[in-house]
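User:
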Amino acid sequence: MVTSASNIDLQVQAKSVHFEGNVLHILLSDGREVSLPIDQLEWLKWLANAAPEQRSKWTIEPNGFAVYWEDLDDGFEIEHLLSLQPLT
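Assistant: Predicted structure:
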C-alpha cells in the first residue's frame, strides 16, 4: 500500500473533547461528533474508572490524530475509534 503525504492530510482529526456524565463526546474535523458511553465499553473502562479531575486533563496529540490523558497514561487514536463497530 502506498501512502502519500496528501492522504495523511485528509485523515479526520479530533478538534475537541468534552464529557456529559459517563458519555465522552469527540468533535471531529469533518463536523461529526462521536459520543461514547465509556461505562459500557470494555476498552474504555480505564476512563470510566477515572476521577472527574483526571478525565478533564486530556490533550489532543499533534495533528489531532489521538486523544491522550497523561495522568492516566492512556488514550486512543481517532482512526481506531472510527474503525469500531457500532454497539448492538
